[in-house]
């Protein structure tokens, strides 16, 4: 393995899911729902396979999906993208992010990420031989917040890119307009390109709006906006994502993407195009159900003795383990199957600053109510 990838090993999600399977524990670690997406969308995928949509789709993606993504962004955010040239379909958001970083980061360029950061960003930056600069989100009044001074201090002459993930995994923070304005100001002042990871765009609670960075003045031109179907339609295994950006940026990403995977799966693209056009009411009810599950898990964790933060988006809760007498989340996550028959994700693995997230673990609530209830019952043993 090349030196720059040696630090990565197996992802924490794979490690913790394997631990759950091995120990028969309830898996509130890896974020995937335990119920299916809308039935009519699943039928569309089956029909697409049966009707012979089984050869290479066009490299940029099926026209109907590119069109549906463009319509979605226009209707929902007022953002206009040309489906021919400004929209690219990828193998999930993961490929989109990696292809974007590989396309836009020269060796030695600096890339800003907000820590705790989703694990694939660090790997993508390493693949591109870029240099990661983490800006720490700090818990303030019950949410992990951006500190604009820390952000400004992280920018230097080699900074080229900033990766912005809102709603944010693993904290559940939804960036406020003020936070996004601070990010936009830095991008404009230092001529940075933003790569936005908006895979949880539809999963925000209590009416919290999701504001795409590209909607801020001057940002559409310099933003590579990424999302995918996995979270929105509860099909994390479909790995169907998309990039929207001005044509030169999309062309750059596509130049890389064509040699990573060439194209993405046809049948899922057809089904996702259908879902974007016809299943947004289903998504709204998913969001409402998730909000209730969030409250259920936060109440249960609080009862069990954790100090749980109530997230404004995503399907993750951050729980402070100190009130239970624990200090190290990684150690606790590894022992949790034996202590309680539950699996969680240690938050500290998403930080460069090893001390910053040490006393937090992440629990996922995209699970059936009976799974959440049983997990909470088991976790009550910790107290
Ligand atoms: N995004 C999911 C999570 O945060 C996991 C994805 C993965 O396993 N790589 O739990």
Automatic annotation (TrEMBL):
It holds the Pfam family Aminotran_1_2. InterPro entries: Aminotransferase_I/II_large, Kynurenine-oxoglutarate_AT, PyrdxlP-dep_Trfase, PyrdxlP-dep_Trfase_major, PyrdxlP-dep_Trfase_small. Belongs to the class-I pyridoxal-phosphate-dependent aminotransferase family. NCBIfam families: PRK07777.1. It comes from Thermopolyspora flexuosa. This is N-succinyldiaminopimelate aminotransferase. Its cofactor is pyridoxal 5'-phosphate. The lineage of its organism: Bacteria, Bacillati, Actinomycetota, Actinomycetes, Streptosporangiales. Keywords: Aminotransferase, Pyridoxal phosphate, Transferase.
């Amino acid at each position: 393995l090349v030196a720059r990838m040696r630090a990565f090993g197996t992802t924490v999600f794979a490690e913790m899911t394997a631990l759950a399977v091995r120990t028969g524990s309830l898996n509130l670690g890896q974020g995937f729902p335990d119920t299916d997406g809308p039935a009519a969308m699943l039928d569309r995928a089956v029909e697409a396979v049966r009707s012979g949509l089984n050869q290479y789709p066009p490299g940029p993606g099926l026209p109907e999906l590119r069109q549906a993504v463009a319509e979605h962004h226009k209707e929902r955010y007022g953002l206009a993208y040309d489906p021919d040239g400004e929209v690219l379909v990828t193998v999930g958001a993961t490929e989109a992010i990696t292809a974007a970083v590989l396309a836009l980061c020269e060796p030695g360029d600096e890339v800003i990420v907000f820590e705790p950061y989703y694990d694939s960003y660090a790997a993508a930056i390493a693949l591109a031989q870029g240099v990661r600069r983490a800006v720490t989100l700090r818990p303030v009044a019950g949410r992990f917040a951006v500190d604009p001074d820390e952000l400004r201090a992280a920018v230097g002459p080699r900074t080229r890119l900033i990766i912005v993930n809102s709603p944010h995994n693993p904290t559940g923070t939804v960036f406020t307009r003020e936070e996004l304005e601070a990010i936009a100001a830095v991008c404009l002042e230092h001529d940075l390109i933003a790569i936005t990871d908006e895979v949880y765009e539809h999963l925000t609670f209590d009416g919290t709006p999701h504001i795409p960075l590209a909607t801020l003045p001057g940002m559409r031109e310099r933003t590579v906006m990424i999302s995918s179907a996995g979270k929105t339609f509860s099909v994390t295994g479909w790995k169907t994502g998309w990039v929207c950006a001005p044509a030169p940026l999309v062309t750059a990403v596509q130049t890389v993407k064509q040699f990573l995977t060439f194209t993405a799966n046809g049948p899922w693209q057809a089904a996702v195009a259908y879902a974007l056009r016809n299943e947004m009411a289903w998504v709204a009810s998913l969001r409402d159900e998730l909000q209730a599950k969030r409250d259920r898990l936060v109440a249960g964790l609080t009862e069990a003795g954790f100090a749980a933060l109530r997230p404004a988006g995503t399907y993750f809760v951050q729980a402070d383990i100190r009130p239970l007498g624990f200090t190290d989340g990684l150690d606790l996550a590894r022992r949790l199957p034996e202590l309680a028959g539950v699996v969680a994700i240690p938050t500290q693995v998403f930080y460069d600053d090893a001390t910053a997230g040490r006393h937090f673990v992440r629990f996922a609530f995209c699970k059936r109510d009976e799974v959440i209830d049983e997990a909470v019952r088991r976790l009550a043993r910790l107290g």
